[in-house]
Task: structure prediction
Amino acid sequence: MTDTYALLGTELKTFPGFQFGNNQYDLTFNDSADSAVVIFQAPEPGDITGMTGYCKSVAGTSPYYKFQLQGVDGSGNPDGSNLAETAKFQASATTAEAHAFTSAYTCTQGQLLCGRLVYADDGSTIDGSNNAVFTYVTSKTQYNLMPYAKYWNGSAWYGSISYHPTFTLQTSITGYDFGGIYNIGKTSSVENITTSGDRYAQRILIPSGEAIELHVDGFRFYGNVENSSGAEFKIGVWPASGAALAETSIDSSQQLSQMATVPYSRDYIFDDDVTLAAGTVYYMGIEHIGGGAGNDLNISYLQPAGLDGLKSWPGGAAFYAAKYSSAAWVDDNTRRLLLNPIISSIHGSGGGGSTTRPTMGVIG
Result:
């Protein structure tokens, strides 16, 4: 087939920005007026069936809370009118609090909505000794305006263009949640790679029903890679078994000197393009090729915490982490690397040209 290169340098979006995931912020819900929201546009029509948030910790006896679905007023705040809500629940520490609305709400594509966490106002004790802490944003996402996170600070709603919400809205659409991106971990959490030949990578599986193939030049990566200067490694793409399809050695000393501060964001380019076909598992990431004390790799990842969390990520369950050691891959869908493939073109099965118009940008 002929490769048109119409999409040269385009990234396949698998996380929401070049600067994402450096930290997290939590909120302590210890007052009856406390509230937090994720404001979003519905990507497509469907039933919104519930809401999910991560409870990080509980002090004393958890008060009762509720999730609500509301509209958004002209000031960009929740309008206070419930379109749906859950039954009241007590939060549990280190738990995905996922609760169904008592009645689902059918949304239209593009509709502006917000998911909201509130005290249930049922008389349960909520104070400095009896409360729950929820993770409500990932930081940094530079200049992010939608989806948007806000919380009530006691006198006004507060939000930031540097945050990405972590509350998500469950839907009737298979494998797809609306709202934020569910994440319970941050990029300072790292996988330590100390053995030459071991790899840490993103598992990629384009569903066979998509009937497309991607021509990939490399990938953009966000987060830490090296523990200290001098680690020898290469980037690559590997099938589930067999030799590398593409790989390139990296000058780690140069990289560490140049990438010594946040956001640790960079493009990696293979020494040859590689074709990813639908229905085949590939692994794209980093291989350690030099051992020794102080020369190990510390590779960053985030934690969607499994298939339910992946439903809120671009690409869903098509992308998640895997480690290669002792000549075998071990997949881990509780983690995800901030890794975007850089593609030159997309083809339908059986040949033909690029399937999208010539453009530079991000697909996702």
In short: The helical segments are 252-258, 307-310. The first helix runs from residue 252 to 258. DSSP finds two helices and 27 strands in the chain. Confidence is low (pLDDT under 50) at residues 351-364.
